[in-house]
Design brief:
Layout: H1 12-21, E1 25-29, H2 33-41, E2 46-49, H3 53-56, H4 68-79, E3 86-90, H5 99-112, E4 116-120, H6 125-134, E5 139-144, H7 150-153, H8 163-179, E6 183-187, H9 191-200, E7 205-208, E8 216-219, H10 221-224, H11 241-244, H12 247-259
Parallel strand pairs: 1-2, 1-8, 2-3, 3-4, 4-5, 5-6, 6-7, 7-8
This protein binds 3-methyl-2-oxobutanoic acid.
3-methyl-2-oxobutanoic acid binds next to β6.
Length: 270
């Protein structure tokens, strides 16, 4: 299985090369230094300091209470554990409400060690993406189930099932890529739609509950290890600790399953 050269640190331009070469991208969330070091040693390509930390680390019911200070703190400790993987950090709830706020928060995240920031949605966020990219801040977009919109959605549900919603998602995916995003997370989207979007956009897509047709996959660390976080486990979650036998074994099993296209299978897709 072809992977990024072991010793070579990932860069933002290398993500586009991976898509061009058909190499699957392996991504996991991390929130502390020890896990970051294990992920890096086991060949994980991208590490995300996600605002999921609000739910799996801080014990909240949603990601809304997560602050920029919290993401900066976790970014700093994770960054110290990485030599090879590319570090992406989330812009938490409303820290990207205006371009200026997003710039302030992104500068803090990049100064803490992030190499790319992730933000949810399209619409007015397209201007925010363009504003950041013009200022040399690499951006990962996030579409589909965007957890910061949980109140609007009324829960955590699969997005893009109806024809009109699917069309809107395809348009949004094109728009975030045209605005300058260099990576796109698709969360809880029917597999067929995610595969179609992946074929249509020039930038790599990373799926979570979006089927095997994406250019890469991401899971939340706790879900990949089968830990009970007190939240309902979505269908796409798989416990790799059961087959890996150790944390490092689980990470390697996950990475291998993503790279070989074995994960996600239909049981873990919509
Ligand atoms: O916050 C997070 O961990 C995320 C992933 C679920 C993609 O956004």
């Amino acid at each position: 299985m072809s992977t990024h050269a072991d010793s070579k640190p990932w860069t933002v331009p290398a993500l586009a090369e991976a898509k061009r070469d058909g190499r699957k991208l392996v991504m996991l969330t991390a929130y502390d230094n020890s896990f970051a070091r294990v992920f890096d040693a086991c060949g994980v390509d991208l590490v995300l300091v996600g605002d999921s930390l609000g739910m799996v680390v801080q014990g909240h019911d949603s990601t809304l209470p997560v602050t920029v200070d919290a993401i900066v703190y976790h970014t700093r400790v994770v960054a110290r554990g990485l030599q090879r993987a590319l570090l992406v950090s989330d812009l938490p709830f409303q820290s990207d409400a205006t371009a200026e706020r997003a710039l302030d928060a992104s500068v803090r995240l990049l100064q803490a060690g992030a190499e790319m920031v992730k933000l949810e949605g399209a619409g007015h966020k397209l201007d925010v993406i363009g504003f950041l990219v013009e200022r040399d801040i690499p951006v990962c977009a996030h579409l589909g189930l965007t957890p910061q919109s949980v109140l609007k959605f009324g829960g955590y549900r699969v997005q893009g099932r109806e024809a009109a919603a699917a069309e809107q998602l395809r348009r949004d995916a094109q728009a975030v890529a045209e605005a300058g995003a260099q990576l796109l997370v698709l969360e809880c989207v029917p597999s067929e739609l995610a595969a179609q979007i992946t074929a249509e956009v020039a930038i790599p897509t990373i799926g979570i509950g979006a089927g095997p047709g994406c250019d890469g996959q991401v899971l939340v660390l706790h879900d990949m290890l089968g830990l009970d976080t007190g939240h309902r486990k979505p269908k796409f979650v798989k416990d790799f600790l059961a087959e890996g036998g150790s944390v490092a074994g689980a990470v390697r099993a996950y990475a291998e399953a993503v790279r070989s296209g074995v994960f996600p299978d239909t049981e873990h897709s919509y």
